[in-house]
Amino acid sequence: VTRVSSPRRGRIGAVDLPALVEQARDGQPLAVARLISLVENGADSLPALARLLEPHAGRADVLGITGPPGVGKSTTTDALLRALRQAGRRVGVLAIDPSSPFSGGALLGDRIRMGEHATDRGVFIRSMATRGQLGGLAAAVPQALRILDAAGFDIVIIETVGVGQAELEIAHLADTTLVVLAPGLGDGIQAAKAGILEIADVLVVNKADRDGAHDVARDLRQAQAMRGQLDPAGWAAPIVKTVAARGEGVDEVLTAIDGHRRWLAGTGTGPRRRQARLTAEVIALALGQLEAGVRELVGTEEFACRLADVPMGRTDPYAIAAWLRAATTD
Length: 330
Ligand SMILES: Nc1nc2c(ncn2[C@@H]2O[C@H](COP(=O)(O)OP(=O)(O)OP(=O)(O)O)[C@@H](O)[C@H]2O)c(=O)[nH]1
Ligand SMILES: [Mg+2]
What we know:
- This protein is α/β, with parallel strands linked by helices.
- The chain has helices at 17-25, 29-41, 46-53, 73-86, 108-115, 136-150, 165-171, 188-199, 213-230, 250-267, 269-298, 301-308, 317-329; strands at 61-66, 91-96, 123-128, 155-160, 176-181, 202-205, 239-241.
- A seven-stranded parallel sheet has the order 3-2-4-1-5-6-7, with helices on both faces.
């Protein structure tokens, strides 16, 4: 069995990868954008790209921002971006919507958000999708992080919508994860609370100009206290109220992020998280390749024949699965 290769992959055109990486490291936004497109499309050159980038990566702080729809994640990201730029830090933003993997490319929203920073080389904003990457977002996002990291961004913000399983997985890619909530989310948030507390390093209660923000913060504190009894040595996420639309509370959020960064360094949790991130990337890549190999075989005549033998009692599903596994990895 040949290695899996989709006809789309690798047909990005002749790319001078080392030159592109040099241009990206030089801060050229077009080069950064082209490299991220390679990741989205699952180009054949991705292993080579990872090797070119790795010596220059590992410096950026990765900040995850997630939360239910409409709570103000993008507004918060923008407010943080502005504050971080004022402090002289270079910031890359990857906006990811796990529920719509095909929306891809530079969205209208990016261009609007980018507008303010269009001439600022210290800012790069990009929506990301995964059309071709094996292993989906879990494999694509770390490679995109590597690109922005090697391109010299001090902080990379990964913004994802929602608090479902996919979002939680992506949130785990960050060094520090902000979960943004807001008043008026209803009962859905109750169900999601366990997951939220699990991943949040900083809890942001946005729209504090509205009624109910105080209640949300109090609920979170109570849930956190119960959880803290189970894990007293753990990190208790600070709860910060913000009005992101007016930039209020943003300094407090940055202070909370700094506090978490010091805790990561002081406890050795930081390197452990990065190790976990790398492990998750490798697993996603391996599973993606295995799955593609299995699906390719499922399209063959031989598979159809084996399947037809099942009702005759000549073989069974377990045996066919074992054959698939062996044929995919040999
Ligand atoms: N009242 C109030 N409105 C806010 C605040 N921050 C953001 N908004 C508004 O809330 C709406 C949603 O904000 P976004 O930043 O787009 O929220 P989001 O979480 O990124 O939304 P999705 O990406 O669609 O999930 C917009 O109309 C914002 O203007 C705030 O602090 N107070
Ligand atoms: Mg948004």
